[in-house]
Amino acid sequence: MTENLFKEFEEVSAKQWKQKIQYDLKGADYNETLVWKSLDGINVKPFYHPDESPEPVQLSTPLKWNITEQIYVTSAEKANKKALDALKKGAESIWFILPSEDVDVKGLFSNLDLSSFPVYLKPEFASEEFFFRLDEQLTPESRVFLQFDIVGNLARSGNWYKDLKEDHRVLDSLLQKCQNLKSFLSVDMALYQNAGATIPQQLAYALAHVNEYFNHIHEKPEVSKRAKFQFVVSVGANYFFEIAKLRALRLLFSTLSSEYNLKTDCDILAQPSRRNKTLYDYNVNLLRTTTECMSAVLGGANSVCNMAYDAIYHKNNDFGSRVARNQLLVLKHESYFEKVANPAEGSYYIETLTHEMADKALDIFKNIENGGGFVTQLKEGIIQKKISESAAREQEEFDAGKLVLVGTNKYPNPQDRMKEELELYPFVKQKPRKTLLQPVIEKRLSEKTEQERLKEEESINSEK
């Protein structure tokens, strides 16, 4: 016999809750005392109630998420060996970074069952010959995603791979001739997060970014029917906001694609943000990446690629990779993060955040389109200016101690010494070069603080 025990309690409306809260505040202003505004422009209330919450967002979320290992390909043979080893140790997907078109594709894929797990390929070049050679090595059952993003390369580097016309010609060739790649249209949304954009800006820029591709292909039926998209997303520290961000991304993409009568879904590859990672007290990065990966999973990412705790200053190493992979294995196998699809559905708070972020992103998106589109506003420097303004506000919060990075601007360990640990340069690299437009620059919040501490280390060493 089942009995609804909640029948014993009268329902309490949102109005009644507010009246009770206002009474307990003893005259203090409700909005000033309990409602706070995030840097993303979202007003966060002290409670959320079904009376004021929107309908749950209907999302096409994956039933399973993949633990992904990133491998930089210096040698096809070595990269293949690393991939096979990672798969044996729990990885369920591989993300190859390709610096050169001279990579031996056959050797790279040796003994890999490309139909049983996703493989992501990020080329740092635009070679039609290489892409066709790659496609020939695959079968229709292969689950290989090529991350070819000409607009993303323009935003990141300030230049096209070659020029606007040639880059789009290569893109059209891929769409027309490649038969075996699962997808090759990619949107590098991670760039905007790592550069300091707010969440609504990240979503709007991703939407405007993908709209550049929609505008290019929608009048080409033979091309548009094969258009499938992937998004590379960086996940920040604001736990519930980041869950809502991924959900809002799917909602916005579905809305935009339907306007073009395109029946296409998106694949999301998520990774922790670099913006809040620190050089000093680096073990705290383990905690940051864990919660960020949790947000990615709960937000509905298809694949999650964790970041090693020492990635900003150490070269890739077995220990860092193993710990990063094991964080995801613990989430999946010991914390039951693989048991439920779309677990955030129905949460009044997250559903409200999802709608608010989507609405704010749509407003920004419409302004971009009214201003000529994403590429036009990149060329005019408008996108870069907006991101810089948002990044500066966040930096001010960090510098003032309002935005806390434990071990860096709060509770630092003065005994930490990192000068001799640097295998990689962990700061923004200054490389003056001729560019078509100002590139979007990724920068960590703690860089200035860390540079000052490194100088202190130098002065201490020189005094000895």
Could you please describe the fold and organization of this structure?
- The chain has 464 residues and is of the alpha/beta class.
- The protein folds into two domains: 40 residues, no CATH class; 289 residues, Methylmalonyl-CoA mutase (TIM Barrel), CATH 3.20.20.240.
- Helix content is 45%, strand content 11%.
- The chain contains 17 helices and ten strands.
- An eight-stranded parallel barrel has the order 3-4-5-6-7-8-9-10, surrounded by seven helices. Strands 1-2 form a two-stranded antiparallel ribbon.
- Helix 3 links the parallel strand 3 and strand 4.
- The mean pLDDT is 93.
Short structural summary:
This protein is of the alpha/beta class. 45% of the residues lie in helices and 11% in strands. An 8-stranded parallel β-barrel has the order 3-4-5-6-7-8-9-10, surrounded by 7 helices. The chain has a two-stranded antiparallel ribbon with strand order 1-2.
Search tags:
464 residues; TIM Barrel; 8-stranded parallel beta barrel; 10 strands; 17 helices; 2 domains; single chain
CATH superfamily of the largest domain: Methylmalonyl-CoA mutase
Q: How are strands sequenced across the largest beta sheet? A: 3-4-5-6-7-8-9-10
Number of DSSP helical runs:
17
Give the termini separation: 79 Å
What is the CATH topology assignment of the largest domain?
A: TIM Barrel
Report mean pLDDT, rounded to a whole number.
93
Order of helices and strands: HHEEEHEHEHEHHEHHHEHEHEHHHHH
Number of domains: 2
